[in-house]
Amino acid sequence: MSEEIQVIAIFHPTPGKENRLQQILLDLASKVRENEQGVKKYQAFEQIDSQSGSNVVLFQETFTTHLSSPYFTSTGEILAKEELITKPFEVIVLNPIGGFTR
């Protein structure tokens, strides 16, 4: 299998601020695309079957210096200042063990 790791981050938006959170995370995705050539995939999803309301899920393939980048730090500051999430986001790091991609 690949040596790349997969990262999933789950954000729990403050009710009424879902669109703003999505906007901020899509801006972050653009900056990752421009600056992190090793990242092959970076997608945002909205979880629609959550019992706690809608959640925003980011999927990132490969994980390097992302957390220390100035744009990631700035995003964290915006999330806190604008109170866009109800609790700290969850990060799940996965190592593929099998399956396929088409």
TrEMBL record:
Keywords: Monooxygenase, Oxidoreductase. SUPFAM superfamilies: Dimeric alpha+beta barrel (SSF54909). Residues 7-64 form the ABM domain. GO terms for molecular function: monooxygenase activity. It holds the Pfam family ABM. InterPro entries: ABM_dom, Dimeric_a/b-barrel. Coiled coil: none annotated. Signal peptide: none annotated. This is Putative antibiotic biosynthesis monooxygenase protein. It comes from Botrytis fragariae.
